Amino acid sequence: MPKPTRGARLGGSPAHERMLLANLATSLFKHGRITTTEAKAKRVRPLAERMVTFAKRGDLHARRRVATVIRDKDVAYQLFAEIAPRFTARPGGYTRIVKVGPRKGDNAPMAVIELVEELAEPATPARASRPAKKQDNAAALAPEESTPAPAAEADEPAASDESKTEE
């Protein structure tokens, strides 16, 4: 469980906050996405991602660690059997928070937190496709003009060597 924050908590005592976050995480794994306030979404995200990481490990100790937070056995089974295998290739970032409009009653900022569906692709550096220097750019545009053909170079020195030996 995350360390309780100093100051005001999400609705009361540290115990109440812990149970509230556990219930939010359980609902997230049960339904795939939930709508809640931005503050609660930001607080439940690290907990949910940690639970998915435990589920990816899949050993007995990980199951017991998840069971301390996710009390519903059906949801815990779903986390290990269905959700964790989707994220085996993904090193992190299992959830997404999307801000939506304010709540009608009290104008509280709302957000949707959901499990990410698409597969993670390996990150490619942005500068790999661009040339590093201006000289490389000129060479890339006209490779024939900037570098002579290798066959022509090989023939010319050989001819000049023969002419030297004949003298």
From TrEMBL:
One of its GO terms (biological process) is translation. Keywords: Ribonucleoprotein, Ribosomal protein. Gene3D superfamilies: Ribosomal protein L17 (3.90.1030.10). Residues 138-152 have a biased composition (Low complexity). This is Large ribosomal subunit protein bL17. The gene is rplQ. GO terms for molecular function: structural constituent of ribosome. It comes from Actinocatenispora sera. Residues 121-167 are annotated as: Disordered. Belongs to the bacterial ribosomal protein bL17 family. GO terms for cellular component: cytosolic large ribosomal subunit. It comes from the Bacteria. InterPro entries: Ribosomal_bL17 (IPR000456), Ribosomal_bL17_CS (IPR047859), Ribosomal_bL17_sf (IPR036373). Part of the 50S ribosomal subunit. Contacts protein L32.
